[in-house]
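Bumping with the actual sequence this time:
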Amino acid sequence: MLAILALGFSSGLPLLLTFSTLSTWLAQEGVSKTSIGLFAAVGLPYSFKFLWSPLVDGLRLPLFSRLGQRRGWMIATQLLLMIAVVMLGSLTPKDQPALTALCAVVVAFLSASQDIVIDAYRVEILKTDEQGAGATMVQIGYRLGMLTAGAGALYVADAFGWQVAYLVMALLLSVGVATVLANPEPGTLPSEAAAGDEGRLAAWFREHVIAPFEDFMRRPAWIVIILFILLYKLADVVAGVMASPLYIDLGFSLSEIASVSKIFGFFATLLGAFIGGLMVTRLGIFPSLLICGIAQSAANLMYALQAIAGHDMAMLAVTIATENVTAGMGSAALVAYLSGLCSLGYTATQYALLSSLTAVGRTLLSTPSGWLKDQMDWVSFFATATLLGVPGLLLLLWLMRHSRVTTARAVAG
């Protein structure tokens, strides 16, 4: 379990180095808001990692063959990830925007690849009755990694600069390397001959990509469901991309942002997730989605009030608490909804594919946020971002009505 915790830490650490931590760095360097918004797209590898997962699942790396298939892939991705993070930190984003974006994409790709093999290793190394505890431990480790790359990186950058901050983050990835070297290879893995067989790859694609999609598309209103998943958290992610640039513009130091936005926000998000889960249990999926959706969209208005208040730490604490609690509520309700959509025969695969849609919303759909901000002041921007939650809520109301009609017909039939 300690090994799973450490691997979860290694998995969660790189995420913010290409997301909010990078956005803070870009804002401090004076990069335009439009460019900062476009940088959100560097996280797309997280959305499409299922496309190359069969390679990670089936191919053994020659240079690391002695370590075994799983450990070999983990060591390879971790070492390359350390190099990529150091390279990213050595750049000057304002003077080298294209190279910075390229390095960030490489970091995201390697991080997503590491996630694939760590998830596989966790499932294979644990016994059946240990899977629940293992899932909990990897989530705790993942959140600790995100906290380190968020608050920890900002503290180090404030004291020693961004190059040192990214160097320290790269060195912390050695936790994963040491964990892999100290633990065994799973005992049951596909043979190399089977893994390299083209028929097996075709069968994998049919079973894990085509069949789950075919099954999902038999569901009534599946197009509306996909649009809803894409748009449900749009207001939240558009505002979130510009949160760090707002703090920098208002004169908050990196240490102040780390203390309130990252550490305080981390616990506020956990509280929100707990509240959201409790609401789903007590009220049901659809009412919880509606209440949480309204709350997470309306919370963007706190950013507008923050822009009016200026450099006010007390107001920042209220803003972060409100936004992170409501975002955690919305995420918990959405996860419960996605879980309920999955067919029993394709639970893991359909959940991975559906959750990738939320990542597309977080990355691709949020890229115009910087351009939008450059067209208006901060108050107008966050008011507009709040309204972006309306389409998703309208789709939700339609789905709620459709569900009631379908249920009534089933009962009548």
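The tokens above came from a reply further down the thread. The CA atoms of residues 71 and 180 lie 6 Å apart.
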